[in-house]
Write a structure and sequence with these properties.
mainly beta
Length: 121
Amino acid sequence: VQLVESGGGLVQPGGSLRLSCAASGDSVKNYCMGWFRQAPGKEREGVAVISRNSNTADYAPFVHGRFDIFQDNTKTTVYLEKNDLKASDTAMYYCAADSGFCLAARRDYKYWGQGTQVTVS
């Protein structure tokens, strides 16, 4: 399984950004996939995950309806649409995948991408 993130960059407060995670490997089409982030000096935390079979999403409480996670019909790419961005959203964002329970609170996902930087300033 390989995960490749894209879409990060510099955005002003209140702006929007869409992150993409392209997944390869047949088994990943049945996995839970999602987004995590890590700011400097802080632990990695879950943002949003989606079950690729049921299309059910789970979000971290701090999202407050600002982000939306969804997948394409071919189940090869997962997106994170981010709106009303704040300076506190500045972090490296990682895509992850796993066959276990699909919860944003989990951190023990098996597969990880290299990350894409999001800076809100």
